[in-house]
Write a structure and sequence with these properties.
Blueprint: H1 5-17, H2 19-33, H3 44-51, H4 56-63, E1 69-74, H5 89-99, E2 103-109, H6 115-118, H7 127-142, E3 149-153, H8 159-169, E4 175-178, H9 189-200, H10 206-216, H11 228-238, H12 254-269, H13 280-283, H14 286-299, H15 305-315, H16 322-329, H17 346-352, H18 354-364, E5 390-395, E6 398-403, E7 427-432, E8 435-440, E9 450-458, H19 461-469, E10 477-481, H20 486-489, H21 498-506, E11 511-515, E12 528-533, E13 550-554, E14 559-562, H22 566-571, H23 592-597
Helix pairs in contact: 5-12, 7-8, 8-15, 9-10, 9-21, 11-14
EC number: 4.2.1.12
Cofactor: [4Fe-4S] cluster
Protein name: Phosphogluconate dehydratase
Amino acid sequence: MALHDTLRRVTDRVIQRSAGSRARYLQRLDAQKGQSPRRGALGCGNLAHGFAGCAADDKVALAGNRKSNIAIVSAYNDMLSAHQPFERFPAIIKKAAHEAGVVAQFAGGVPAMCDGVTQGRDGMELSLFSRDVIAQATAIALSHDMFDAALYLGICDKIVPGLLIGALSFGHLPAIFVPGGPMPSGLSNPEKARIRQLYAEGKATRDDLLEAESKSYHSPGTCTFYGTANSNQMLMEIMGLHLPGASFINPNTELRDALTVAATQRAAQLTEQAGNYAPIGRLVDERTIVNAIVGLLATGGSTNHTLHLVAIARAAGIHIDWQDFSDLSGAVPLLARVYPNGVSDVNHFHAAGGLQFLIASLLDAGLLHGDVATVVDGTEQGSGLDAYRHEAWLKDGKAAWRAGTPTSADTSILRPATDPFDPSGGIRLLTGNAGRAIIKVSAVKPQHRIVEAPAIVFESQDEMLAAFKRGELERDFIAVVRFQGPAANGMPELHKLTPPLGVLQDKGFKVALVTDGRMSGASGKVPAAIHLTPEALKGGSLARIQTGDVVRLDGEAGTLDILVDATEFAARPAATPDLTANTWGTGRNLFGAMRAHVTGAEDGAHSFGEDFA
């Protein structure tokens, strides 16, 4: 199938824009590669330290440079249900590595915070910055020059982007990402949302709410709604960094373990010593990044990736911006409805045909670059993204692959590109005199996508919640929650606002949210202009907006305007909030340098410096 003209045009634009930086990145990759294996250049004392804790036969193999050494970089901890299953993975990987004739060492752990635990808490102000810390921790884990390839164990919100940025900083190493899978389905998502709204209205008790939440998040595995964690898994697969079909197999199952073994075996085959050298820095190119954006749009994925994909691309010397997302959104149809864009969860999505059906449909429509390199090129599944038309299954106790279903098993969840839910993608760019922002429209009904109403200005989500509880918001209005950007307080997610805004919308009021903060992959039925840039602290229009100013948010036309005389608006002094409370407690005092040096949202909100690739 010929490539769609928009896909080709955006890709060409990204290639041209990135020509100099991508060339520098690849030059640095080749220089970093050096001799093979890298540990061959270590002094005797260095090398002795590096394998001192290994078994005797592994010491011999590493000392003689006879076997490849695979790094395990893991985000395991017990606080994240999605990451708890990773406790078992190193032992599985080390055993599989020995059987494959190589060595595997646990190179290092990276931090992994749970946004579900920190929602609405001070700790959420560390969430976005944790991505950069994870990237740095990944670099530290790999800094010993002991490794020939790496396996990355991560799933959730900032963890996979951080691991991938770190992996690309060691772009000369082959890499495979190893997921853990979603928890089995629990309480239905509509019922969970219903209880949350009842609690917001004071019609359900805290015990009722806790019971509902515990039935939703009830076991090891990824949360089953289509937020950032599951968007991450989709991205790793459509970028060719997972084994085909690996994303949504439940944890602690025989197939899940078999896929972990297969990932280890495949990593062993990608090293330079194995003769099939495939470094991640060359595998992830401009076409791979464009494919990732397409996947995000086609599935109505997490708005967090309008930050993360920008930073990930930059780590490989590739420059993308929100206009690229917007242009592709006009051409890429919405093929999936998974909560909060529908009522079903990722287990239902996977059962309906999942990523294999979705990738095949996009390829057949000319909406993906099929000729990209992947971690399974040259295997029995084939090369390029065609390999990802195959689903994983268990055959004689081992992972195997077969052709995915040619039709969706449930068209209320998953549809082909020839019969989409919506002809355009779920994420759009908003522009106007308010700045540039992102809106996720896939979960917003068409009648709610345009709101023109007076603004009510808040400088924290707690201020708005207090106003809601006092009954002051029973009217049409646009909530402006400002000084929530990365430089102000780390750009926390503002999910505490979703239930009250949903209550007001259900009462018939026209409501919306405008903020320089985040809402993430769980953005729901209320229109929300998020990631507004420039942020208020950096001279953005939000610093001058006043309660009573009429604001128009048009999710159809892609505009966001403050309907105030331009001369009058420009003459207003900018608000100067007291942010001292955001600089201390819960470790926030340790992140002052990041707040001071972070880039704007459209530049990825990273703190690495201009040319970190």
